[in-house]
Amino acid sequence: MNFELTEEHLAVQAAARDFAQTELLPGVIERDEHQKFPTEQVRKMGELGFLGMMVDPRYGGGGMDTVSYVLAMEEISKVDASASVVMSVNNSLVCWGIEKFGTEEQKQKYLTKLATGEIIGAFCLSEPEAGSDATSQRTTAEDMGDYYLLNGTKNWITNGSTASVYLVIAQTYPEKGHRGINALIVERGMEGFTVGLKENKLGIRGSDTHSLMFSDVKVPKENRIGEDGFGFKFAMQTLAGGRIGIASQALGIASGAMELALKYAKERKAFGVEIAKHQAIQFKLADMATNIEAARLLCLQAAYDKDAHRDYSMSGAMAKLFASKVAMETTVEAVQIHGGYGFVKEYHVERLMRDAKITQIYEGTSEIQKIVISRELLK
Ligand code: CAA
Ligand code: FAD
Asked: Which ipTM value was assigned to this complex?
């Protein structure tokens, strides 16, 4: 593993940092409070190439490596995790899934628009009774010859009301278990497809999370991704890379909180000195910095594995498991360092603390990451 970032990596990192500070920071508190989707900011992210970073330039993407993606995700998540989850889902689940497994027609029709941010996508695996236990899909995609008849409910879907394209996982042959599952590209506006109410959440409140209902939706056969019955493996392989994105989101939330805590500790005085002069505060900062550095190295390791075409399901799971724990611990301590000011919205750290929690839940809970890691170890 090469620890040196290239000129290109540093340029991407600087561009993401600049975008986060100038475009995301103003208004982030208000968007969180009013659960307002960052529409204008996401549009600009598309223009700057942050929504299809790793997609081949032939399909309108940036042709960058996963390391660049991790660096950009960290910078954007330092400021606005609601914006970075849009970026993560679009890049590493939707674009990657279609680019890796889609047909040329699907790439021309959907990927070219998704990669430039002209439209955004959603990834729909979870159901009311199939979260961690993802093979228990109740949504059905009945084979009707030249189309699938889609029926069921998905819940917790990120970009639920803003997406134009939805990758929907559904059961075609229940008797075959996970080998009977398919992945279909569903378009917004297909008859029988409705978007449910928006969830009122603890964190990432700017992100639109919805349930989706499918009632006799006719999805053309050419919208199936991969071979008949490939849908569950499609979901698992796609999520393996998605977890690198969420790990970097957690890393960014942690490092954003640490930067704020460090600054505040040098400004705030108590007992006649800056609180940074008290060893109890110094030790909190030392622990934060050490944990964040370890989380960053795990994220970069997983990214290097992916770029080197090595198996990255275990390193991605380790990065997500560890970085999300660090995000929780760091944000709690950042609030503590801010004292009472940490408990109010103006100082940002309370939002980062609320946002951190989701990184231990979505794209596989921490317990699921441990299942993935231990199965690899015991193989
Ligand atoms: N790559 C390829 N295939 C894989 C795989 C991988 N990484 N992981 C599993 N598979 C295959 C297995 O080989 C197996 O196939 P075969 O029987 O043909 O060998 C098949 O998938 C089923 O695997 P398991 O028997 O291991 O299945 P399981 O029921 O024990 O579940 C699990 C495994 C890892 C727990 C899985 O269900 C899982 O990942 N659950 C969590 C779901 C999740 O992460 N949801 C996220 C939703 S998206 C989201 O959250 C987005 C967002 O918030 C922004
Ligand atoms: P459950 O699976 O019911 O788990 C409950 C608890 O039991 C957890 O602590 C879990 O770790 C534990 N548990 C379950 N099984 C085991 C086991 N075998 N061993 C040990 N512990 C276990 N899904 C999508 O498909 N697309 C999205 O875009 C998306 N976005 C989301 C956005 C938000 C804000 C949220 C909250 C969720 C989102 N999800 C999305 C769903 C998310 O992936 C699931 O919530 C997650 O996978 C957990 O599923 P569950 O909520 O059903 O919890």
From this structure: 0.99
CA angle 11, 15, 20 (to 5 degrees): 150
User: pLDDT of 56-110, one tens digit each?
Assistant: 999 999 999 999 999 999 999 999 999 999 999 999 999 999 999 999 999 999 9
Look up the CATH superfamily of 122-231: Butyryl-CoA Dehydrogenase, subunit A, domain 2 (2.40.110.10)
The reply to whether ligand 2 has any atom less than 6 angstroms from the CB of 120 is: no
Tell me which amino acid residue 172 is. T
3-state helix, strand, coil in the chain (%, to 5): 60, 15, 25
Residue nearest atom 53 of ligand 1, based on CA coordinates: 362
On the 0-12 / 13-18 / 19+ scale of CB atoms within 10 A, 351 is buried
Name the residue of 361, 373, 375 whose CB sits within 8 Å of the most ligand 2 atoms, as the mutation to test its pocket.
Answer: 361
Residue among 105, 363, 367, 376 flagged as catalytic: 363
Helices and strands in the chain, H and E counts = 13, 9
126 lines ligand 2 (CB under 6 A): yes
Instruction: Check pocket membership of 229 for ligand 2, CB cut-off 6 A.
Output: no
- Ligand 2 touching residue 166 (CB < 6 A): no
Q: Is the pTM of this model over 0.90?
A: yes
Q: What are the tens digits of pLDDT across the range 208-220?
A: 999 999 999 999 9
Q: What is the DSSP letter of 6?
A: P
CATH classification code of 239-378 = 1.20.140.10
* Ligand 1 pocket by Cβ (under 6 Å): 85, 89, 123, 125-126, 132, 134-135, 158, 178, 232-233, 236-237, 239-240, 313, 362-364, 368, 371-372
User: CATH number of 7-120: 2.30.30.110, 3.40.640.10, 1.10.540.10, 1.20.120.1200?
Assistant: 1.10.540.10
d(C-alpha 81, C-alpha 75), whole Å: 10
- Residue extents of the structural domains in the chain: 7-120, 122-231, 239-378
